[in-house]
Each structure stands twice: as structure tokens, then as C-alpha cells.
Amino acid sequence: MEHPTEFDLQLAINNFIREIDRRQVFDRDQLDELYDHFTEETASLTALGLNEREAFTVSKLRFGEAAVIRREYERVQPVDGAGQKIIFGFMGFFMIGFGYSLVSAAHQLVTSLYRRFGETREMLFLFLDYFLSFLIMGGLLTYIVYRLRTKPYFTRLELFAIPLLGFFMNFSGNRFLLQLAVLLTYILIYRERKTLIPA
Amino acid sequence: MKSYSKDLIAASTIPIVLSILQRGDNYGYRIIKEVQTISGGELNWKEGSLYPVLAKLEQNGLITSYKKKENGRTRKYYAIHQDGIKFLADVKNEWSSINQILAKLWNIQPNLTFS
């Protein structure tokens, strides 16, 4: 009997699937499907008396080489690999820009609140402005969460729209909350891109 | 165990998958196992090759997929679409014709019947 710390079957399955999906273009359903395949195959092999390591090795052999399967997938669902890299380059650039904007926006907000305190009409406009920003931010984040849960990669339209949005938000005044929304969106995209298969 | 050429396997994969799905909805792993059972273990695909094929068939609208909970996990099941049934009927005719041509050329009795 193999000691459980010697071989982590779930980790081995996850690593192999990640090798197939090296470009991280599979949606959640596809990842789950492959995970389900290996789980069932290894379970049937361990039921025959193989240990987990042996069962995984046999499953992998039966499944085929990761590179070959990856190429077969790519024929079915081609990926704009260069575009994905460019967008993440843009995101890094805008996040640095955001850091600068964040400091100046916070400074402006504090200053304007201090000066305008007591002037009800102006405060109302300020409130509406930020309320609108909250609505836009909420909508944007809801969309991104929904979108990435179904397909964790970008379409051509998004490859165009996301850098444009970042550019607009970073160089058009000091809408602090909208800029925050863009930053949160980028962080979310980055985190979801690294999504692992649930155990 | 017989060894089939890559080309023959590639050409027969889609009709085989569609035929299995015509018998009833199924999921990836079980489709592979059915192929092995039906072929008496002679047709051994690289199992991973099935999934891109399923993705392609779904993209082309020949099959559809849905999720089903089984034994605490959610499985992706595939079902043949009306377009898939029609496509399969056409493919059956093609294979039948080819079978008859080859049978004549090789002087053997054609033996491809459909239920």
C-alpha cells in the first residue's frame, strides 16, 4: 500500500490537464470533463488492484501525449496566443498607470470634500457621480465574473476593448472608482486565468 | 489485436461516435469504453483524441451537451442532434457504397447491414 504523501493523484491529474491546456484556453466544462475522465479511469484501475501511481501512469498512456492532444484541440478551437500575451502586457502597463492615478485621485477627493463640505448641491452632484461609477463598476464586474466562469480566455472583441478601456480610464481625468473598477477587473481576470480544477 | 491505419481510424471516428450517441446520450469516458467493448478491444483509440472530436461535433451542431449530476459529480453528457442524425444517415450510405465497391473488387460478399 502506497503512503498517501508519496503520490498525490489529484495533483498529478491536475498537472497533466494543465499540460494539455498549457495555453489556458479551455473553459470550465472542458477542464471538468477531462478531470472526470481521469478520475473514473484511475478509480476503475485501482479497483483492479493497481496503486494510484500505477493507475495514473496507465491512464496517461491510454490518454495519449499531452502535446498531441493539445494540437488536436487547437485544430478545433484555435487560439490567438500572441493576442493573449499582448493584453496581459497592456494590463501590466495600465496597472502601473493606475498606481499613479490612485494617489492623485485620492488626493483630489480629500481636497474637494474638505472644500465643499456644507455645500449641499455640489455634494449631491458628487454623490451622483460616484453612484453612477458604482453602477458601472458593478455591471462591469458582474459581466467579467459571469464571462470568465464560462470561458477563461478573451475573444477578439475583448482583446481590443479591454486595453482601450484601460487606456481611457488611466488617461481621462480622475474618476477614482472607475479606475478602481478597472484595476479590480484586471486582477479578477488574472486570477481567473489561473483557475484550477476543483478537487 | 488488430492494428488499424491512422487514416482509417480518423475517417471512422465521427461515424462511430455519432452511432454510439444515436443509441442514447452518453459521456466521454463511457463512449470510449463502449467503443472498446463493441470492437472487442480491437479498436483502441488514444482516449484523449475523443474530446477534441466531441468539441468539433458540438461546434458543428451535430451533437449537443448538457450537465447531469451523478454520484455527487457533474458530468458532461452528449446527445445527438437532428442534424447529426441526418449527417450519420448520409455517412452510412457513403460507407455502404464504399463497402460494396471494395467487396466487388475483392470478390467478397458485402456484409454491411443496418438495423
Structural summary, described in words:
The complex is a heterodimer of chains A (199) and B (115). Chain A is an all-alpha fold and 199 residues long. Chain A folds into two domains: 9-76; 81-193, no CATH class. Helix content of chain A is 78%, strand content 0%. Chain A has eight helices and no strands. Chain A has helices spanning 9-20, 28-47, 52-63, 66-76, 81-116, 120-150, 156-170, 176-193. In chain A, helix 1 (9-20) runs parallel beside helix 3 (52-63), helix 1 (9-20) packs across helix 4 (66-76) and helix 2 packs across helix 3 (52-63). The longest helix of chain A has 36 residues, at 81-116. The relative contact order of chain A is 0.13. Chain B is an alpha+beta fold. Chain B has a domain at 6-81: Arc Repressor Mutant, subunit A. Chain B has four helices and three strands; from the N terminus they run αβααββα. Chain B has a three-stranded antiparallel sheet with strand order 1-3-2. In chain B, strand 2 (63-70) and strand 3 (73-80) form a beta hairpin. The longest helix of chain B is centred in the C-terminal third of the chain and has 25 residues, at 82-106. Chain B: This is PadR family transcriptional regulator. Chain B: It holds the Pfam family PadR. Chain B: Residues 17-89 form the Transcription regulator PadR N-terminal domain.
